[in-house]
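INFO batch 0412 | record 1 of 1 | parsing
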Amino acid sequence: MRIAIATQPFAHLSAQALVTYAFEQDDPIGDVLAEMDQATGGRLRRLVEARELTGKMLEMTLLHWPPGLAAERLLIVGAGKLEKFTTAELRRVAGAALRYLKNRSLKQLAFLAREDNSDAAAAQAVVEGLLVGDFEPDRYKTEKKNNKAIESVALCGWAASEAEAGLARGRIIGESQNFVRELVNEPSNRLTPRLLAERAEAMTREFGLRCEILDEKQIEDLGMGALLAVARGSDEPPRLIVVTYEPPQMGARAPVLGLVGKAITFDTGGVSIKPAEGMEKMKYDMAGGATMLGVMRAIAQLKPLVKVVAVVPATENMPGGRAQKPGDVQFSLAGKSIEVINTDAEGRLILADGIAYAKRLGATHLVDAATLTGAIVVALSNVNVGVFASQPEFSDRLLASARRAGEKMWLMPLDEEYGEMIKSTIADIQNVGSGKGGGAVTAAMFLKEFAEDTPWIHLDIAGTAWLDEAKPWAAKGATGVALRTLVDLVMNFPAER
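INFO prediction complete | emitting tokens
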């Protein structure tokens, strides 16, 4: 999809549809819309009086052949309350408008900014919304229902220099988010650990990143017993994917940000097998790893001033004859012994080795992302990402990034009492909590044991990485959640400790 800046007045824009937005207030018509109302001979005012144009969030008002405009159609999207409007809402408005018009087989669109939403950040949000909205999960359909595809969108109402900067950044982030969604949507037979490693290598070659793939022999030689224990039940061998971005210059006290992502390319639960209903969705259990690869794809182009190392342990969790069993004890790369109470709590095992390896590679700060627990869905549903952090300063920085990126995240507790729940009688630690409830917290406490004194954040994205039903602004399936937040975190990370 081509996205370009248009400098001519909106009334002269030739497009199949011109899109803008209205706010829910006493008079939805203001600034740009007042000009548009005048150009169309008062049609917008009459729609307001008839209560067909109210500005309610994502309300669609479509006019055909509007007089005074060169565009064939005018679409006004409700943007909700002005006082609650941010770039997050603007992003959804853009995505919803594109999907609404795409379903009507339109090809060429124009998007007009309101006068008070015409800076580079707004242009970036619109471009991200357009790209995310345009994504479809129909890769394996042999017969497409039709040839619905948006070919081009013109952005108007921005100063060219600001819009160009926002467009460039928005395209990088939007395309990287879709890269994540594409990986997560892949069926597990078409994205085994080895195939995920190949996809990661191809991405790093394209964008000039350093990539190292460790096979099962190298993983064993390192002593990653926790990762190997999960992998043992599958005929598919595991892989450890390491991707590095290094800025041109680094000071002596420069931090190294370690990004660790869980990549269980299919999760049956192992011997502690999951119910059959909904198990097909478990291809998404590598969303954390995909997110970290997408972040690296974005920052390779945005070029932050901080070194970043992504570590992605990848394996299947299967109930084969060699699979680990409840009650087994495994030894991690960090040297800690782990009693396996439940083989379906496997993500924390592979992350334990991933976190330890990121520290070995020099990470001074750690962020992990994982579809880790059903308990976080109970706590936060599919609205917020669960955030667990060892240091308030680090979590404050991440949550500020989440607000700028328009992603909802909620800080969860890590009280010491939860740590008591994962103490084992025969090993250093057990992989599930012994108390009732608090499963998302005890899982995070398990990971904290391996981060130790290194500043660390855990993102539980189990409830937010997948849409069971399509939204007006996004297709059903993988969401690419946390990518925008993590890119913002990296881009604003201090170059000195």
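INFO post-check: The CA atoms of residues 4 and 320 lie 53 Å apart.
INFO record closed
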